[in-house]
């Protein structure tokens, strides 16, 4: 329109605001909708970045703790073998002999001298060994020396030292009782010298552990932990019809960690493979089988257009996993970048390498562009002020703006090529092309289904639901009902479904093993709530003086029809008690009357704390006037459920937020 200004968000061109300029243009006043959306997106970006930093920090701490734990185990096993023989010979045997000596009464002066010197020699032998081992504790190296059993070893050494002293005391008493009290001058000066020497040895750290051994074990443990926690060679569950993740965008590190952890627990089938730098199979290559029509010394040629330092062993392992999944009748799934499902594929597997080389050349060109005057001018105009903290997809506002500026410097053909490449990672493009080359069908998924829920849950930030049905309209009133239902089921027992209408919860079903049972349980309450407005229910002939709660209970029993059923069984007394609420027996509410009246129920909202696994929940919900549905999504049968909603004209949104507690 003439005289109108149109403003769009750079990262969301569909967010647009129009205004008529009049003097100074203020974003907070003249561009309110756009300004609010920009603030919301900025807040979400910062929260995602904070979550990403915290996730990496916690993952690093977990790996470090696991490495130390494993190193302690390794040291403990080594020390247990090293200590056993010396401990038995230098401590256990002398203490055992000393125990016997303490009980032998001397029969002569010469015998008393011999027993005293022999006992002193045994105690000195035990003291030498104990002082050397206790020295590690004195220097704060107990765990390094003994591993996780440090406390046990240290306590044992100290107790044995104390026991040795008690034996010498017992020997001294024994000698004194037999008249050889003077042996105290033989035993105890030697004991004092031995203790003094042992204490000095301990404090000086003469037995201090070789720290190189500890650091070597720690490095080995770190490598093992890295191998277990980061390396993933796939875990295919051989089950007919089971969904199997066969391609994954690696730049979503948080979602990757969640997926791998879930797969290792056996809850998800995954064919994807990751062999990072620093692991044994990184950089290894695999030859192309002779029965394949592709040329090259290894898979790197068709994958990347040339040999790469990270190798192609991963692709050979990936093919094995995919073949295993196909043989077991699995449903293959490919995950695309968030909100980019179906984009970023290459023409064919045969062209994947050439297209990759073209992207690499443009990436080199991008590096050269950052040295250009155009880029330096952008830095001076505020580009340098943008945050460089990455969000869930490993990109930062700075990175994305640099990429947008770079795209403007390209020709139309190059720009379109790069833009059309977005949606899948480089290795993913080859994976998907291979599936198509082999004729394997796959389902396209959005990685947003796996993104961490923390970023949207913190500080009251609402998640951004995705409307997945043909009907896209959710009125404000229905949005409030869906939010209310979602909040309510968050605080109920897991496997929960809630119905809401007009700002009220009208039915909650929780704790059932089957989700459709939750839907039916809550649906009974919805039907009862709505039938309260039936003319027959509103006109029930209550006696004067019947309390409000008694009236509510009597109406529910009337609507449910319990009392009519009781007329023909032995519990007539219960019906008689119920009839005391009325002046005259009410006329029954027939099934046909209920069905007819329930047809007037409409615009009901339903929310589920986890995905609907089958369409049966939707089939039942439509009988209760449900028009709006909220659920996390993520089921193998999502398409089936979406089709059911489309059939009934419902609007369904995937909240991408699971609310169950287990």
Tell me what the structure shows.
With 662 residues, the chain is α/β, with parallel strands linked by helices. It folds into four domains: 132 residues; 219 residues, no CATH class; 134 residues, Cytidine Deaminase, domain 2; 54 residues, Orthogonal Bundle (Helix Hairpins). The protein is 55% helix and 8% strand. It has a six-stranded mixed β-sheet with strand order 7-12-11-10-8-9, sandwiched between helices. A four-stranded parallel β-sheet has the order 4-3-5-6. Helix 3 runs antiparallel to helix 5. It is extended and about 115 Å long. The relative contact order is 0.07.
Would you spell out the secondary-structure blueprint of this structure?
Layout: E1 5-8, E2 16-19, H1 27-30, H2 32-102, H3 109-138, H4 142-146, H5 150-177, H6 184-204, H7 211-229, E3 243-247, H8 253-264, E4 269-270, H9 300-304, H10 313-327, E5 331-336, H11 349-369, H12 373-380, H13 397-408, H14 412-421, H15 426-438, E6 442-446, H16 454-457, E7 466-467, H17 476-490, E8 497-501, E9 504-509, H18 515-531, H19 535-538, H20 548-560, H21 562-565, H22 572-579, H23 591-598, E10 604-608, H24 616-621, E11 626-631, H25 638-648, E12 651-654
Parallel strand pairs: 3-4, 3-5, 5-6, 10-11, 11-12
Antiparallel strand pairs: 1-2, 7-12, 8-9, 8-10
């Amino acid at each position: 329109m003439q005289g109108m200004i149109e403003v769009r968000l750079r990262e969301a061109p569909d967010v647009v605001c129009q205004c008529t300029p009049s003097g100074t243009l203020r974003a907070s006043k003249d561009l309110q909708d756009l300004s609010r959306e920009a603030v919301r997106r900025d807040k979400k970006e910062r929260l995602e970045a904070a979550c990403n930093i915290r996730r990496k920090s916690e993952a690093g701490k977990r790996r470090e703790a696991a490495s130390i734990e494993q190193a302690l185990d390794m040291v403990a096993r080594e020390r247990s073998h090293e200590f056993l023989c010396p401990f038995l010979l230098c401590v256990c045997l002398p203490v055992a002999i000393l125990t016997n000596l303490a009980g032998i009464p001397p029969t002569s002066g010469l015998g008393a001298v011999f027993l005293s010197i022999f006992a002193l020699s045994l105690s000195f032998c035990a003291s030498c060994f104990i002082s050397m081992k206790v020295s590690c504790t004195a220097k704060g190296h107990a765990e390094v020396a003994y591993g996780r059993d440090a406390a046990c070893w240290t306590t044992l050494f100290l107790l044995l030292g104390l026991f040795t002293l008690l034996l010498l005391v017992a020997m001294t008493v024994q000698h004194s009782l037999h008249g050889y009290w003077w042996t105290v001058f033989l035993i105890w000066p030697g004991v004092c010298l031995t203790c003094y020497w042992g204490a000095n040895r301990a404090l000086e750290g003469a037995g201090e552990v070789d720290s190189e051994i500890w650091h070597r074990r720690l490095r080995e443990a770190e490598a093992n932990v890295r191998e277990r926690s980061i390396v993933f060679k796939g875990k295919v569950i051989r089950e007919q019809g089971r969904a199997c993740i066969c391609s994954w965008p690696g730049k979503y590190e948080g979602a990757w960690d969640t997926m791998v952890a879930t797969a290792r627990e056996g809850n998800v089938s995954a064919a994807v493979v990751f062999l990072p730098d620093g692991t044994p199979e990184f950089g290894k290559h695999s030859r192309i089988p002779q029965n394949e029509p592709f040329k090259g010394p290894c898979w790197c040629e068709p994958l990347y257009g040339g040999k790469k330092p990270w190798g192609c062993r991963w692709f050979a392992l990936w093919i094995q996993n995919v073949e295993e999944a196909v043989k077991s009748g699995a449903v293959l799934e490919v995950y695309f970048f968030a909100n980019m499902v179906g984009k970023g594929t290459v023409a064919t597997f045969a062209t994947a390498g050439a297209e990759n080389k073209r992207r690499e050349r443009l990436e080199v060109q991008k590096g050269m562009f950052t040295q250009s005057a155009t880029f330096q001018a952008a830095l001076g105009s505020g580009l340098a002020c943008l945050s460089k903290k990455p969000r869930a997809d490993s990109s930062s506002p700075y990175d994305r703006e640099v990429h947008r500026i770079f795209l403007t410097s390209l020709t139309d053909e190059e720009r379109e090529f790069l833009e059309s490449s977005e949606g899948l990672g480089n290795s993913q493009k080859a994976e998907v092309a291979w599936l198509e080359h082999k004729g394997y069908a796959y389902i396209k998924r959005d990685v947003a289904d796996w993104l961490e829920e923390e970023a949207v849950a913190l500080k009251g930030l609402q998640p951004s639901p995705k409307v997945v049905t043909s009907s896209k309209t959710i009125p404000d009133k229905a949005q409030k009902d869906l939010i209310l239902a979602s909040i309510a089921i968050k605080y109920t027992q897991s496997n929960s479904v809630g119905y809401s209408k007009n700002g009220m919860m009208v039915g909650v079903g929780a704790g059932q093993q089957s989700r459709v049972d939750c839907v039916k349980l809550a649906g009974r309450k919805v039907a009862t709530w709505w039938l309260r407005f039936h003319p027959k229910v509103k006109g029930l002939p209550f006696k004067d003086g019947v309390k409000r709660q008694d009236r509510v209970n009597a109406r529910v029993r009337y609507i449910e029809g319990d009392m009519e059923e009781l007329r023909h069984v032995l519990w007539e007394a219960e019906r008689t008690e119920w009839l005391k609420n009325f002046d005259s027996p009410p006329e029954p509410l027939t099934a046909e009357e209920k069905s007819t009246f329930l047809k007037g129920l409409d615009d009901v909202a339903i929310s589920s704390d986890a995905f609907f696994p089958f369409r049966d929940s939707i089939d039942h919900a439509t009988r209760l006037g449900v028009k709006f549905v909220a659920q996390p999504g993520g089921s193998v049968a999502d398409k089936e459920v979406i089709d059911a909603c489309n059939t009934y004209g419902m609007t369904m949104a995937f909240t991408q937020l699971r609310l169950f507690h287990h």
